[in-house]
Write a structure and sequence with these properties.
By secondary structure, the chain is an all-alpha fold. It has one domain: Ribosomal protein S18 (30s Ribosomal Protein S18, Irregular), CATH 4.10.640. It contains five helices and no strands.
Length: 80
């Protein structure tokens, strides 16, 4: 039983770095559509931070900027 458990290899996940921390971004502007569209799926959903690798601080900033841009009709709520 122990030999079987030792034979199974566990994959180590690659630790993703926050792209916005590397760029030293202090504030994400809701008018920067090119940056915000990188964090949206093709259906218009916000990509989670475990996929993008953002830190919690920058993911919150992305979320609020996307929601503001949607209300200003710069980004769609859904894409059909």
């Amino acid at each position: 039983m122990m030999a079987q458990q030792q034979q199974k290899k566990r994959r180590r996940r690659k630790v993703k770095k926050c792209k916005l921390c590397e760029m030293k971004v202090d504030y994400i502007d809701y008018k920067d559509i090119r940056l915000l569209s990188e964090y949206l799926t093709d259906k218009g959903k916000i990509i989670p931070k475990r996929v993008t690798g953002n830190c919690a601080k920058h993911q919150r900033m992305v979320k609020t900027a996307i929601k503001r841009a949607r209300h200003m009709a710069l980004l769609p709520f859904i894409k059909l």
